[in-house]
Amino acid sequence: MSTKKALITPGYTLTFILVTALFYLWALPNNLNDVLIPQFMKAFELNRLKAGLVQSAFYAGYFLLAFPAAKLMDRFGYKAGLLTGLLLFSAGCFLFYPASVTGIYGFFLFALFVIASGLAFLETGANSFIAVLGPSETSEQRLNLAQAFNPLGAMTGVIAGTIFIFSGKEHNMKQIAAMQSEGTYQTYLQSEIARVSPTYLIIGSIVLLFFLLIWKAKFPPFLNKSGEDEVHQHGKLSMLIKYPHFLKGVVALFFYTGAQVGTWSYMIPYIKDYMIKSEKEAGFYLFTSLLLFGVGRFASTALMKIIPASKLMAIFSIINMILVSIAVFFPSGIGGWSLITTSFFMSLMFPTIFALGVKGLGVNTKLGGSFIIMAIVGGAVWTPIMGLISDTTTSLAIAMCIPLIAYIYICYYALIGSKPSGPVIFDEDQKIIISH
């Protein structure tokens, strides 16, 4: 008789599909930011440091709301958290309309903060939910499968932004001076700002539809040893900090998000600077990078059947160290393509770090997941730092040293830091398998 366990808890395949669809949805605004940065640089006449505040406002929402999200789900369950996240997500998208009318950069940043606040609920809930919706032994594989749909959303966001947000109108200093003397320059800038909101209004409407679908979906109660369901299980911070593999996982995700967000945020400017491409052409290069990211997710899920997740992540980290080094020291066509290719090898890192970080935490899984999601603030920290380095040195290639440092730490975590450790390690049935 076969002892092989189902990948997903029986009876909840439809719920798995709906929650997996959320991985697609939240990728849309995440990667639209990579289009917004060059668009706002043009429309609001910003330098790279100020444009990088797009990511700071966005990932601040993750940082500030991930813990409240975990506490809400600890009290009311996964479903309540996901519904709250969808409402905030939708509200933030609809705020793009008044932001566009007023033409205030800070209003756009606030709208992005609201969107990210919703995503903090979605990512904390969905990642933790998928991680425990089946056997513990296959949590990395299950989470990589769900995360494989995230780059599809990322590609959709970038292609939509490239087509509908980028106008393709780029003016040199002489042309700008002529428009200013004719009194048409401010009208041009306002038209560039106005191009942003329609895409977000459509996304907000789709998100509301998913709110209704999740509201009607069946969610399982996760039982602990006492037979209590998830609403009555409460994680403890005092217990959580005793797991070294979890704490190192938080640091690993902080570095990883900085690498991913920084690379994608400045990929269009990098390609424009060193490959001499237009904004629309550069947008399609970014799309190619995200396509590789998506292929990498599916390839990684397959490879994990024969190679342990932590070992595969170490291999991918080493490859990315080499590729980013080429982008730093050879800023040209070869550097650009090396940077584009890093997306394939970063593909497995987020879900693998998350799954390894929460492995064995038992009732502390939601709380632990929230702290790992809070580490997404790395995107808010490292992206403007990369912009500052670029503005100071006038070299975007040098700024790519930040992702290089990140991959070094991720390699350490994969090989050494991710080994489960702590006072009590649980299996998927909340039974103790390791006690110190």
Tag the structure with descriptive keywords.
436 residues, mainly alpha, two-stranded antiparallel sheet, 22 helices, 2 strands, disordered C terminus
Care to describe what's here?
This protein is an all-alpha fold and 436 residues long. It has one domain (13-219, 228-435): Growth Hormone, Chain: A (Up-down Bundle), CATH 1.20.1250.20. The chain is 75% helix and 2% strand. It has 22 helices and 2 strands. It has helices at residues 13-43, 48-51, 53-76, 78-94, 96-102, 105-132, 139-147, 150-165, 173-182, 185-194, 197-216, 237-240, 244-265, 267-274, 279-303, 309-329, 333-346, 349-358, 365-374, 378-393, 396-399, 401-417; strands at residues 424-426, 432-435. A two-stranded antiparallel ribbon has the order 1-2. Helix 7 runs antiparallel to helix 18, helix 14 runs antiparallel to helix 17 (333-346) and helix 16 (309-329) packs antiparallel against helix 22 (401-417). It is globular. 56% of the residues are buried. The model is unreliable at 223-232 and 428-436 (pLDDT under 50).
What top-tier CATH class fits best?
A: Mainly Alpha
Within CATH, the superfamily carries the name: MFS general substrate transporter like domains
Shape: globular
Low-pLDDT runs of 5+ residues are: 223-232, 428-436
Overall number of structural domains: 1
Question: What would you call the structural class?
Answer: mainly alpha
User: In what order do the strands lie side by side in the largest sheet?
Assistant: 1-2
CATH architecture: Up-down Bundle
In terms of DSSP E residues, the strand content is: under 5%
Tally of extended strands?
A: 2
CATH topology assignment:
Growth Hormone, Chain: A
Q: Major beta sheet, specifics? A: 2 strands, antiparallel
Average pLDDT across residues? 87
Radius of gyration, in Å, reads 22 Å
Distance between the ends = 34 Å
Order of helices and strands: HHHHHHHHHHHHHHHHHHHHHHEE
Number of helices: 22
Helix content: over 70%
